[in-house]
Design brief:
Layout: E1 6-15, E2 20-22, H1 23-29, H2 34-41, E3 45-47, H3 55-70, E4 80-84, H4 95-103, E5 109-113, H5 119-132, E6 138-146, E7 164-174, E8 180-188, E9 196-197, H6 209-213, E10 220-221, H7 223-244, E11 254-257, H8 262-271, H9 283-286, H10 293-303, E12 312-319, E13 323-330
Parallel strand pairs: 4-5, 4-6, 11-12
Antiparallel strand pairs: 1-7, 2-3, 6-7, 8-13, 9-10, 12-13
Helix pairs in contact: 3-4, 7-8
Length: 331
């Protein structure tokens, strides 16, 4: 009998824009303080795109880094490109098609998905299924977002949170049973669609002078409601991933949570007695970069020697939709 095929991560890449937006910068434009932001969120600074930069620029750079890491010199070897973004280059066509053009892999299938901060895990799961079913051998999964483009810098309750970035992985078919995406779990609850959303610019409320005047193209967020839901779901995800894969905290090398808020991350870790040394946190320097946050953190964790070949990592995320998702990965 043929051995089951697994989706192994053979390449990992990430990037952030150069421009830094610190809490001190925000103090100059809204009524806030570094102390308030740091205590409530753990964020000290974030990276945001400059004029002329875009989601596509970040996505292409992260993709190139992941392809280099995988040793793929000819991008036309890719069978599929999946891009998660809630901040696409333009409303359509898909940002994935623009990435494909930039990489020069004409003919490779390409599409976008949208699952907000859970988007990387959703896209990873789709890529995993394409590989495990034997449909594809090599898949590029990219998560790229420029939330700063949709952030209302007059709304102090939300603008402190968001940053920009992109991360990408190359998935390849592998017959090794001890390597790859071992487990994924995806959920959504559309009843909470308005917890975090952008009201205008879609088919129901297209762009108009009024939508611009009313700040309708910016993120609206019910912060306290999001917080409560996120704590519950991040805790649940950690428990589910360990239970389904028969793992204890001792078996896990690193938890890489969506960088949503240090207090939410700590509450999930505490529930299962995960020492914080086993939980990767870089929210202080990048803020919440939506779908990009997990691959960005994974790439940094590997560079810092926290994970390497053979490591078992748990990734968990929560986001608009509402969506929540988790995965267990053997590097
Ligand atoms: C946004 C968040 C940091 C706010 O923290 P909080 O402890 O819930 O704060 P509250 O919203 O209860 O506000 C408390 C007070 O701080 C004030 N406040 C809000 N933002 C502030 C800021 N940037 N600086 C100073 N004060 C602020 C509020 O006006 C409120 O004042 P009041 O008590 O006089 O009314 C927190 O709710 C959160 O992180 N939620 C999750 C959001 C999220 O992660 N979204 C993305 C999900 S992927």
């Amino acid at each position: 009998m043929d051995k089951p095929i697994r989706a192994a991560i053979t390449g990992l890449g990430a990037t952030v824009p150069e421009k830094v937006l610190t809490n001190a910068d925000l103090e100059k434009i809204i009524d806030t303080s570094d102390e308030w932001i740091t205590t409530r969120t753990g964020i000290r600074e974030r990276r945001i795109v400059s004029d002329g930069e875009s989601t596509l620029d970040l996505a292409v750079q992260a993709s190139r880094n992941a392809l280099d890491d995988a040793g793929i010199t000819d991008p036309s070897e890719l069978d599929l490109i999946i891009c998660h973004t809630v901040t696409p280059e333009i409303p359509f066509p898909a940002t994935a098609c623009l990435i494909q053009k930039a990489l020069g892999s004409s003919g490779t299938a390409a599409f976008d998905i949208s699952a907000a901060c859970s988007g990387f895990i959703y896209a990873l799961t789709i890529g995993q299924k394409f590989i495990e079913t034997g449909t594809c051998r090599k898949v590029l999964v990219v998560a790229a977002d420029t939330l700063s483009r949709f952030t209302d810098y007059t709304d102090r309750s939300s603008c402190i949170l968001f940053g920009d970035g992109a991360g990408a992985v190359v998935l390849e078919a592998s017959e090794r049973s001890d390597r790859g995406v071992m487990y994924t779990v995806l959920h959504a609850d559309g009843n909470g669609w308005d917890f975090i959303h952008v009201p205008a610019g879609g088919s129901r409320t297209p762009a108009s002078r009024e939508t611009v005047d009313n700040h309708g193209h910016f993120i609206k967020m019910r912060g306290r409601d999001v917080y409560k839901f996120a704590v519950a779901k991040m805790q649940w995800l950690l428990g589910d991933c360990m239970e389904k894969c028969n793992l204890t905290p001792d078996d896990v090398d690193l938890v890489v949570p969506h960088q949503v808020n240090i207090r939410i991350i700590e509450s999930a870790a505490k529930k299962y007695d995960f020492p914080m040394e086993k939980v990767y946190v870089n929210i202080d320097r990048f803020g919440n970069t939506s779908g990009a946050s997990i691959p960005l953190a994974m790439e940094e964790a590997r560079r810092n020697g926290k994970i390497g070949p053979g490591s078992t990592i748990l990734v968990i995320a929560f986001g608009a939709g509402l969506t929540w998702a988790g995965a267990v990965i053997k590097m």
